[in-house]
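We emphasize that the prediction below concerns an isolated chain of 758 residues; any contacts that depend on oligomerization or on bound cofactors are therefore not represented. The input was used exactly as deposited, without trimming of termini.
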Amino acid sequence: MSKNYIVGFPRIGEQRELKRVLENFWAKNCSFIEVQKVASELKKRHWNYQKDSGIDFISSNDFSLYDNMLDTAIILGAIPKRFKTLNNEELYFSMARGNKDCVAMEMTKWFNTNYHYIVPELSLEDTYKLNASKIINEYDEAKELGIKTKINLIGPITFLGLSKRVDNGDTYELFNKILAVYEDLLKEISKLDEYITIQMDEPIFVRDNEMKILSLIKPTYDRLANISKNINIVVTTYFEHSNEATKILVNTPIWGLGLDFLHGDENLKSLELISNSKKKLIAGVVDGRNIWKNDTKSTNKLLESIAQNVDKKNIIISSSCSLLHTPFTLKYEEKLDKEIKNWLSYAVEKLDEISLVTKLFFDGIDSLDATNKDALDSNIRANKSRKTSALIHDKAVQERVTYYTKFQRDGRYEDRIKLQKEILGYKDLAITTIGSFPQTPEVRKARRAFKNADISYENYEKQMKDYIDDCIAFQEECGIEVLVHGEPERNDMVEYFGEQLQGYGFSQNGWVQSYGSRCVKPPFIYGDISRPKAMTVDWITYAQSKTKKIMKGMLTGPVTILNWSFVRDDMPKDEVSKQIAVALSDEINDLQKAGIKIIQVDEAAFKEGYPLRDKKIKIYEAWAVRDFKISVSSAKEETQIHTHMCYSEFNDIIQTIENMDADVISIETARSGNELLKIFKEVGYKQEVGPGVYDIHSPRIPSINTIVHQIKLLLEVLPKEQLWINPDCGLKTRKWSEVKPSLKNMVEAVKIIRANLK
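Result of the prediction step, given as a C-alpha cell string:
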C-alpha cells in the first residue's frame, strides 16, 4: 500500500549544477551533450533522494531544462511560427530566450509564487502533434534505477488557461484540438508499464473560474480517465482550495485528487464528497512553499481530522505543492545560527518529514523505531524552541506595533502638492530616474570583498562613495533634475534592508529557481521586525552633500519586502507586514530630519501578493494599503513621497493605488504607448504620475525622436503638470554604455517637448 507522495522536486541541483551547465552551454563553453549528462545525473540523484527517504510516489517529467510549461508546449507541438525552422535544443532555448532573429516567448509569474513560466502561444490555424520522447525517456531512465515513477503533466485545462492566443481569440476555443493530443499522449504512456499513475497539475482550478471553464472538467477527465485501464489519473491542485472543481471531479473516473490543506484549508469542506466517491485523497499537509520545519504533531492532528471523513486506506500523505519553491538542502548552511537552522527545512529535509508523518499517522507512535522516535523528539523540541525563543519574540516590538496609532501622513494631497511644488521648485515634466544605476563588476567585487572581510570598511566606503560621485556628476552633466545616488551599496532591494532589520535571516545556499538558470536566494523572516539603526541615511545624506539638486531617498516598501521573502508561519502575514511598516516609518523620519525632501518607497511586488480568490482580495488590499500608509506616516506635508510599481495592469487595482496616497507614482508603460495610462484619466486620478518613457529591459538605446513620440502620447492622456519623465524601471541590470546615451536622449526629448509647449 502506497502511503506518501511528492508533488514535484527541485531541479537546479544542490549546488546549482543545472544553472552552471546551462550558462556554460549558452556561452558556448560546453556542448549540449554535457548539459544532457548533468541533467541525467541530477535526475538520478533526485530520484534516489526520494527513494532513500521512503517516498512511494516519485515524479518523472517534473525535471526541466528551463520550464515545464515550455516542455508541455514542445510535447504538444505548440510551436510558434517564428521557431518552426529550428530543431532540438536550438528550438527549445530559442523559444525560452529568443535568438538574433526571433523574439522570446512571454514569461510571467506562476500563480502567486515567484517562479516564472513561459507563456505558450496558440493559434486557431496551428496544428498540434505529439512529441512524447522526453516523457518516455525519463520514465525509462528511472525504471533502469529500479524506480517506478508517476508521470507529471500540466493538465489540459490549465495549459489552455495559462496560454495566450496570438490571433486574439479565446484559448479555450482550441480545447478539442489540444485535448486530442493529450489523448494521444496518454495512449503512448499506457504502453510504458503494467500500470502507471499520471499526475495532472490543474492549479487553474483554485481560481474563481467562469462556468465555461468548469464545464470542461467533466468531459476532459471522462475522456482521459477512460483512455486505458492501466492508467490512474490524479488531478492535483495547490496554493488555494478547489472546491468547485472537486464537486465535478468526484463524478469522473479519475483515481485520486491532490489537494493543498495548508494554503487551501477550505478544501476540508470537500472531504465528504471525496469519501463518498471512494477516490484516493492525496493530502497536501507538509508545506512545499516555505522553509520552516514541519510541526509533526500538528500535522498528525490535521490528518486525524481528515481521517474522520475519509477512510484512512484512501489517504496518501503529500507535500502541499511541488518542492520546486523551496531551496534544495540545509546541508551546506554552515554559517546559520544553530538555533535558527534547527527551525528550518528545505526540500531534502521535507522528504524525511513526510516519511516521519507517514509512519506516525498510519502506524502510531508505538511503532516508531529508535531513529524515528529521536526524529520526532527533535521535531517537538525544535517547534517548542520557536514558540519560546527570545530570537523570535520581542515584546517591545509587539507592544509598539499593537498600539501604533499613526495610520497615515498629515494633510490632504491637494494641499501637500501645492506646498511641495513651492518648496521643491521642479518644472512640469520633471526629469528623474527610478533609483539604481548599473552595478559594475568593480562595484560587485568591492561589495563581495567587504562581505568576505578581504577589505576594510574604509576601503569599501571609499569605493562606494567614488561611484556615487560619478553617478551624481553624470546626472548633473546630463540634465537629470531630481537625482538618485545609484545604490552601489545595495546587493538586492529586499536583502539590503533585511540585513539591517532585526528578525531577518540569510542563507548561504537557499537558492530557488526563478526561471531557466535564474536562481534567487530569498531572505527569511524568523522573528519580530525592528530597525536597530538608520539603514540609508548616511549614504543618501552623503549624496545630497555633493549636489545642490534634490536627491531622492530610496526605500523598499513593506509589502515588497514581505512578498519577496520566506515569511514566518507562526504569525499572520498582515502582522509581519505591519512590523516592517513601522520600522520603515522611522527610516523616513530620519531621512527627512537629515534634509532629504523626496523619498521613494518602492512597491514592486505589491500586486504579486494578491490572493487567488476574489473574496480574499479586499482583505489583502486593506492591510497592504494600511502598511504602505504606515510606512510613510511620519512624512511631513512638505516631504514628497514617491512609489514605483513594476507591472503594467492597473485597471483592476487603480482605486487601491489611489488609496495608497503617494504624491507621485512611477510605472512601467513604455511598451504600451499610452493605453495603460488611460485608466488614470478615466478615474480622475489626481496624483502625479511618472510613466516610463523607454524600456530598460532591452539593451536598445531609444532615439530622441522615439522618446519625443512617447511623451506626446502621454500628453494625450494626462496634462504636463501631472507628468514626470523617467525610464520604466531601475537601471541596475544595464550597462553604462546603454544607460548614458539613453538618459541623454531622454533629457533632450523633454527639452524639445517643453519648447513646443511654451
